[in-house]
Amino acid sequence: MNTEMSMLDIHRFYEVMGEEGVLISYKGHLDGGVIDMLTQLTEQKLAFARTRTKVKKKIVNILVEAIQNTYFYLEYAKEKNISVLKDVTTSFFLVLAQNDYQFALFTGNKIDNKQAEKLKERVRVVNELSEDELQDFYIKSINKDELPTKGGAGIGLVDILRRAKHQVSFQFDDSHSDYTQFSILVQVPINGE
Amino acid sequence: MENIEIKGSAKQPDVLFNGKTGELEIKGRSIPENSYQFYEPLLNWLDKYASTPCPNTVLYFKLDYFNTSSSMYILGILKKLEKIFLAGNKAEVKWYYPSDDEDMLQTGEDLKQIVKVPIEMIEVEEED
Fold this sequence. Notes:
The complex is a heterodimer. Helices cover 50% and strands 21% of the residues of chain A. By secondary structure, chain A is α+β, with helices and mostly antiparallel strands. Chain A has a single domain (18-189), classed as Histidine kinase-like ATPase, C-terminal domain (Heat Shock Protein 90, 2-Layer Sandwich). Chain A has a five-stranded antiparallel sheet with strand order 1-2-3-5-4. Chain B has a single domain, classed as 2-Layer Sandwich (Transcription Regulator spoIIAA), CATH 3.30.750. Chain B starts with a strand and ends with a strand. Chain A binds chain B through residues 32, 35-36, 39-40, 52-54, 57-58, 60-61, 64-65, 68, 71-72, 135, 138-139, 142-144, 147-153, 155-156, 158-159, 163, and chain B through 10-11, 31, 33-36, 39, 64-65, 67-69, 71-73, 75-76, 98, 100-104, 110, 113-114, 126-128.
């Protein structure tokens, strides 16, 4: 390994991150501790950037929901042993960036092709809902007699769309034969309006 | 009955359920991965409390953040209060929201649509 060259690469890497307004970048293993760490780091970075409280809260809420969605999927995949990919549990990534107008949260993970089809359909359905319909969907979904004993409420995507007022893009890259790369991009205006 | 006192953390709210005064408070953030583990004891406590409630039960919600799985359990708690209220007891909920937090206001309004127990929305000033 050429140490001098690597040091230069690292400095260049952080220069590019700075130019692109990257506040946080993470890729790898995901567990409860990592979720805590990313949440706290996000709050600190946003506080340091003097972000308005309402915008900070919106971003943190969306971030938690997005990360926990991935976490529950990975737990489910582990339990059901549906993932044949060795690196699916470490495929999680998250980038939070900022420019003069907005924050952008970009996150995702690899998913099993079968699950990807189900998720694609779910995204198609909720993405077509108006703001009022999303609101109704959310209320109906939380108003259940049976409460889940594990996992989430299954309405993380609905909550993200609701909070971000549809400034959300979903991407399913199925160009790989054995998995689908799922990504979600959420944009939050810097003034929160 | 025994009170519930839970010190909050980065993921779990402070909880103070006082069975002698009927004052119940949930405060802080509620974003656990496993909401069942956290909220099930609270729901069980409320079931017991509902058999002999105080003359006046007041539940204070002062939350900063909560995730969607918590929201189901928060509604579960409100339904327990509703049961107490519909049985002819005095019960109410005070839902605090920062003036700048439209999402927290919206959630309070959503919950108001679902349960019959009175929910008072209380705006608190939050500095930027």
